[in-house]
Structure formats: C-alpha cells, structure tokens
Amino acid sequence: MMQLLKTNDPSVHDVESLCSIFHASPQTIRNVLSSGEIPGAFKVGRRWYVSDENLKRFMNGCDR
C-alpha cells in the first residue's frame, strides 16, 4: 500500500488534494477525516488518505 501512495495514484486523495476539491484548509480537512465523516478514510503514519471511490460516495451522499 505504501508504494501505491508514493506514486501519486489519482485514485487515492491526500489532504492536499482534498483541500483543492473542497476549498478548505488542511486543518478543516483533517478534522473532517478524523471525525469519520468520510467513511473509508485512513491514515498511514501521520498522513490521511481517501480512495476516489469513497470520496465519490461521500460527495453523492452530500448531494441528497
């Protein structure tokens, strides 16, 4: 899994890419991720990640 994350795979989003998507600060994104609001978010060391599939599910749920 670590190798996948190091290659900047577009199917996995980090805090920086989520900031761009949601136009929010890194701290806000970290708070959302740590609260469990986006199911499937995971940490590797101190860094947060969300798969593209889980992000799409979250975003589709917000549209309802």
How is this fold's topology laid out?
Blueprint: H1 2-6, E1 12-14, H2 15-22, H3 26-35, E2 42-44, E3 47-51, H4 52-62
Antiparallel strand pairs: 1-3, 2-3
Order of helices and strands: HEHHEEH
**Gap between N and C termini, in Å?**
33 Å
Average pLDDT: 86
Strand content: 15-25%
**Which strand order does the major sheet show?**
1-3-2
Query: What does the main sheet amount to?
Result: 3 strands, antiparallel
Tally of extended strands? Answer: 3
Structural class: alpha+beta
3D shape: globular
Radius of gyration: 11 Å
What percent of residues adopt helix (DSSP H or I)?
40-55%
Task: Flag low-confidence runs.
Answer: none
Q: Helix count, per DSSP? A: 4
What report would you give on this structure?
By secondary structure, the protein is of the alpha+beta class. It has four helices and three strands. It has a three-stranded antiparallel β-sheet with strand order 1-3-2. The N and C termini lie far apart (33 Å).
Q: Keyphrases for this structure?
A:
64 residues, alpha+beta, 3-stranded antiparallel beta sheet, 17% strand
Give a quick rundown of the structure.
With 64 residues, the protein is an alpha+beta fold. The chain contains 4 helices and 3 strands. Strand 2 (42-44) and strand 3 form a beta hairpin.
